[in-house]
Each structure stands twice: as structure tokens, then as C-alpha cells.
Amino acid sequence: MPLVSVHELLSKAEQKGYAVGAFNANNMEIVQAIVTAAEEERAPVIMQASQGAISYAGLEYITQMVTIAARQATVPVALHLDHGTGFDQVVRCIRSGFTSVMYDGSKHPLEENIAVTKQVIAMARPVGVSVEAELGKIGGTEDNVHVDEREAMFTDPEEARYFVEQTGVDCLAIAIGTAHGRYKGEPKLDFDRLKKIRDLVNIPLVLHGSSGVPDDAIRQAIQLGIRKINIDTNIREAFVNEMRRVIAEKPDEIDPRKILGPARQAAVEIIREKIRLFGSSGQA
């Protein structure tokens, strides 16, 4: 089926009280794993590409791989730009066929973040592309985007209310204690802050850096209004660990398909596990 917008997926999730998984698509095998898992769980899914993935695979390759996967799928699939930090990049992704974009202006002053987000929305909305923004700074590193732990900043609830009122953005990524990449300890989410934001903001909320967050914390975040959950690191771990296992068992293997095939299946299993955790299984 044709690609759909993230707004369409999150609107249904908002009505029914679950979250949609947003999984980073870094190569062909992971694209296949995401759509296979979504099909097996009968779940809507968001495939997202970061700046690093676009630099690695090329914008056209990413777009076409996900478009083909969606066309062959019987579950709804969206293609989303993750952490776009420049207006020009957002434009290129929309022209390429992305159905959703994230403009991440969280490093800029509030009014500048608002101004550029409004420009992105003015361009995206007439062509049916949904827009995600970010308020607060989520620590850690994701491809080319790095926020030092000392610079990480939780989202202010009143600023979130003001930001959404001023921009009319479709969904908002908030900083409540998660981080990109691997955690050094167990993350502690600020659920009181999440509840305050939810009470002031009537759009779907997004949780980045969700790999490694305990399942109970994820469930509680969904109960409090998180509707899109980003997962990348857990997929990379499952994929690469299985590759290492196969190579260790068969050091003379030179057929990449026999190494990448099991890695792809390992990715399918972790993605299915996350889909069930998010409550989106059976919601296609």
C-alpha cells in the first residue's frame, strides 16, 4: 500500500491509547526486518532515516527501499526524517517522497525554533507531509547529532504549551530523561513532567532514545500520552551481535547473505518485541 503520514498513524494511536514504533532504517536488511515484523504483528509502523543513514545509503536509495517495502506491505508504513537539523535537508526529503519530517531546532533559542518550524510546516502541510519538532535537548549521540550530557535539558511544560500554540506542529518530541545511544545506567524518566506537558498539550508526544528504557517505564509513558517511540540502538545491537555469532561459528564463511540473513531475522524478533510492548500489535 502507499506510504502514509505519521499524523495519520498517530491520530489513531491517540484515539486508542497505544504508541507506534519508529524504527531506524539503516540498510536493506533492516528495512526488510521492520516491514516483516510489522506484517507479522499486524501493526502500523514508522521507518525513519537519520542524517547518518542518508549519508551512508543515499537519499534516493533510502526512499526507494522504504517505498518498495510499503508498496508490498498490507500494513500502513510511514517514511520519516529523524532529526533533520536544516531547512534544506527537510526540503530534499519531502521532494524525495518522505511522508513525515522532523525539524530538530532544539539547539536554537525558542523563538528561532518556532520560526523555522513554522516555515517547515508551511511547506510540508500543503503536500500532506506531517511535521515533528523537538523541545528540550535529548542527550547522547545519534549519527551526526550529538548533545553533551551537561547540555541536555528537560522540556519545560509551559514552553511546550507555547511552542505548540505558536506552531501547530503535528507531534512533539520531549526530553524527560531519555538519551540516544547506550545507557551507562538505568534511565529514570520524569513522569511528573510528562504528565504536566500532556495536560497542557493536546497533540501526540514522542519519546526519543528509547532503547534500553525498562519495559515498565515505556508502558507508563504510553499511559501518560507518548504516541511515537523511537528505537535504533536495540536493533543495531541485535543485528550486529547475530552477525558476530555467525562469523565466530563459521569463520570461513564468505557469503554475506549467510551472515546478514540471520542478522535480519534477529532484527525482526527485537522489533516484534517492541511492537507488542508499545501496544500497536493488531492495530493495522
Explain how this protein is built:
This protein is of the alpha/beta class and 284 residues long. It has a single domain (6-278), classed as Aldolase class I (TIM Barrel). 50% of the residues lie in helices and 18% in strands. The chain is built from 11 helices and 11 strands. The strands form 2 sheets. An 8-stranded parallel barrel has the order 1-2-3-4-5-8-10-11, surrounded by 10 helices. Strands 7-6-9 form a 3-stranded mixed beta sheet, with no helix packed on it. The chain is globular, with a radius of gyration of 18 Å. 48% of the residues are buried.
Please write out the topology.
Blueprint: H1 6-16, E1 20-24, H2 28-41, E2 45-49, H3 51-57, H4 59-72, E3 77-84, H5 87-96, E4 100-103, H6 110-124, E5 130-135, E6 139-142, E7 145-147, H7 157-167, E8 171-174, E9 179-180, H8 191-200, E10 205-207, H9 215-223, E11 226-231, H10 233-249, H11 256-278
Parallel strand pairs: 1-2, 1-11, 2-3, 3-4, 4-5, 5-8, 6-9, 8-10, 10-11
Antiparallel strand pairs: 6-7
Low-confidence residue ranges: none
- Main sheet: strand order: 1-2-3-4-5-8-10-11
For the record, the CATH architecture stands as: Alpha-Beta Barrel
What is the terminal-to-terminal distance? 12 Å
β-strand percent reads 15-25%
Q: Which structural class is indicated by helix and strand composition?
A: alpha/beta
How many E-type strands? 11
Helix count? 11
The main sheet comes to: 8 strands, parallel, barrel
CATH overall fold name? TIM Barrel
Highest CATH level, the class: Alpha Beta
Into how many domains do the coordinates divide? 1
**Helix-strand string:** HEHEHHEHEHEEEHEEHEHEHH
Radius of gyration, whole Å: 18 Å
Global morphology: globular
